[in-house]
Design brief:
This protein is of the alpha+beta class. Helices cover 34% and strands 17% of the residues.
Amino acid sequence: MYQTKKCEHCGKKINRKYRICPLCGAGQSDEVELIPAVCPRCKVNLEIYIQKGEEYDICPSCGGLWLDRDEFRRATAELSAYRDKEVKGDYKQGSASDSVKYLPCVRCSKIMNRKNFAKISGVIVDECANHGVWLDAGELEKIRNFVADGGLERAQDREIEKNRNELRDLATRVEQTAFTHKIIHFWNLKRWLFGG
């Protein structure tokens, strides 16, 4: 049997693992026992650093950076990158590192997923779907330069082109299927008319 909890909005009992109540559709907050913020690489306590009104958790040893989901969204937003005078906008994609190491989330200790930011940036970030993103030293600057250099537009253009090609392939398959159906129905009609 599964463990239940009360929905924060409708009060009905739901599975403890549900992030959205199936009865009222409301989102549920995470029931995570927050642990002290520790660098997933160095195992050193993270220090709070405030810059331009934003609060970041930084590792004093390796320079890694933890951003909660909303902090990451704000830090990598186009408007934020374009307004920042320190962001040069000259982005050069570096080579991927050979070693792959999956890191635990700073907030819940579950293993994070590795993702290529915007699918084409070449900056691999470690992301916990529930809590936020871990960036190694210098990766936030690379992402902001990528954004300021028009990288998000290029990623969107690539996605649009991919969708356009998929739609074209689908249309071709639909036309072929429709033609096949016409032939089948033609032969069935001919057989009915001529008794063959």
